[in-house]
Write a structure and sequence with these properties.
Shape: elongated
Number of strands: 10
Radius of gyration: 27 Å
Number of helices: 15
CATH superfamily of the largest domain: SGNH hydrolase
Structural class: alpha/beta
């Protein structure tokens, strides 16, 4: 597919060379800015968290610093195609070093990726990809994602990953060190869904995912698998602006942007998500103490980012308006990490574009501190609360500290809107006469073909998904937070507040210095 794709990129490049009042290539470059450089805007002030005193035998006791190996399987969104591209030709380059789930270029101050976050806890992390290149280059390491891949290819990728890890690590290290594998696939299946509903059916997609997870379960000891729920490809509709975006999206994902098939893809998208959610939540991968699969749903109801004026924010996307830009990879890495820090049943299902990374902590420390504070009198709690409030920036501008201890789900509402589309027409008409017959002595009618585009107007139905409000009785402080008089404060805020610690000590409550 590489040659047709390259030809299409050249065709788009020629097309957009013509002046247009829409988003031309030059306007896109102006909007996107110098994506080749990443200056992290992410706040990460978590305290150092040492690895477990001994190597854990249970995946459920795993700390970030215990993870020694990182890997990923998937498609071009994991290979990071076009992440630093400023023109459509750059989409052919796989910028694996800045991949949200597997990239390890530089450090967290320059490239926000899952491996770079983990490096802050374990400088000896191994397996992340760097630089550019295909999955067969040495620097790809354990990122074996392939651009254009569909779910049917994932079992092969899983086996390739295991074989590569054993080859590079040796059997002893492969079996003894803890591994984190991020698994994200399905966009290309949905983009081809309308072309072959049998091959890309929900049942086929689920079976491919199950076969892949079965391989990882059977062949990989000491492994935590992040299964990232397939994103909402119907949101591409909001990026369908300008000649570049329109042409590229029709080429890359016609099923999702074509008005005649878009609703069919929406339905399939939801079915994919439900099928894999049910599969992962079934518990069939929780049969061993050293392996589990955790669903990370932050892309499940992802919406296209907007600017402060409400316009589509193209800076999160590569020039084709389909793949992530470096900024988009950064945002995805933050959301993935924050999902990982949230408890099962309390994980966010929207892309919140957060600029703060949540801190890990042990439930034992949080529960102990919460019990200590909850046991105090109201007057004592008030004193602690006032001290925390004076020094806290948490929760001042949003409600991000609060979570729902149930999944409230979403409301689906059908709406209609007027659409305009073009239909290609063709006609044959008489356009004169020409000499014909023997010796050209006769006169014959000449016919000419005429082609034109005819504007059509119609009404389409689309679905709007709105998260349900959490019932008041189910509102709780999110994982990693302490409740003090109906307010949520981070564990680190409490333990780093000298005044609060002095108050607790003065009340006769012993504070173990290692808790902070």
């Amino acid at each position: 597919m590489l040659l047709p794709y390259f030809s299409f990129l050249l065709a788009c490049g020629i097309t957009v060379a013509l002046p247009s009042r829409e988003n031309t290539l030059f306007e896109r470059m102006r909007i996107l800015g110098p994506l080749g450089r990443i200056n992290s805007r992410i706040e990460f002030s978590c305290p150092a968290l040492n690895p477990s005193p001994t190597v854990p035998t249970s995946v459920h006791a795993l700390r970030p610093a215990d993870i020694r190996l990182v890997a990923a399987i998937g498609d071009s969104l994991t290979a990071a195609n076009g992440a630093k591209a400023s023109t459509i030709i750059g989409l052919l380059i796989e910028y694996r070093g800045v991949s949200w789930s597997a990239g390890g270029d530089s450090d967290l101050t320059k490239a926000v990726t899952l491996p770079n976050i983990l490096k802050t806890f374990n400088r000896n992390l191994y397996g992340f990809s760097t630089g550019t290149g295909s999955r067969d280059t040495a620097n790809a390491m354990f990122n074996v994602a392939r651009p254009g891949a569909v779910s049917a290819e994932m079992p092969d990728q899983a086996n390739m990953l295991v074989d590569r890890m054993i080859e590079k690590l040796g059997t002893s290290r492969f079996e003894s060190e803890w591994k984190l594998v991020t698994f994200f696939i399905g966009g290309n299946d949905l983009c081809s869904y309308c072309e072959d509903t049998n091959r890309y059916s929900t049942a086929a997609y689920r079976n491919n995912i199950k076969t892949t997870l079965d391989i990882l379960h059977n062949r990989m000891p000491r492994t935590l698998v992040n299964f990232v729920t397939v994103l909402n490809v119907a949101e591409l509709e909001d990026l369908h602006e300008g000649v570049v975006c329109k042409n590229m999206q029709f080429f890359l994902c016609d099923c999702a942007v074509n008005t005649t098939t878009r609703e069919q893809v929406r339905v399939a998208n939801l079915a994919y998500q439900k099928a894999t959610n049910d599969l992962v939540d079934s518990g069939i991968y929780d049969t061993r103490n050293d392996f589990t699969v955790v669903r990370q749903p932050f892309m499940e109801h992802m919406e296209v980012p907007t600017t402060s004026t409400g316009a589509t924010d193209f800076s999160y996307f590569a020039p084709d308006c389909f793949h992530f830009s470096a900024k988009g990879h950064e945002a995805a890495a933050v959301e993935l990490w924050n999902n990982m820090m949230e408890k099962v049943g309390q994980k966010g299902i929207l892309w919140n574009l957060a600029d703060t990374l949540k801190c890990p902590s042990t439930d034992a420390d949080i529960n102990t501190l919460q019990q200590l504070i909850s046991s105090l009198s109201n007057a004592q709690k008030e004193k602690i609360f006032q001290s925390l409030l004076e020094n806290s920036n948490q929760g001042r501008q949003d409600n991000s500290n609060w979570c729902c201890n149930i999944d409230p789900g979403v409301e689906a509402a059908a709406k209609t809107r007027q659409t305009t589309y073009y239909v290609q027409r063709h006609a044959r008409n008489k356009c004169g006469y020409s000499d014909c017959g023997l010796f050209g002595w006769s006169s014959c009618t000449s016919w000419c073909d005429t082609y034109w585009s005819e504007m059509q107007h119609g009404v389409e139905t689309y679905i709007v998904y709105t998260p349900r409000l959490c019932p008041a009785g189910n509102l709780v402080c999110c994982a990693g937070y302490i409740t003090v008089i109906n307010h949520c404060f981070t564990y680190q805020e409490v333990m780093n507040n000298k005044d609060v610690l002095e108050i607790l000590v003065s009340m006769g409550i012993p504070i173990n210095p290692t808790m902070g």
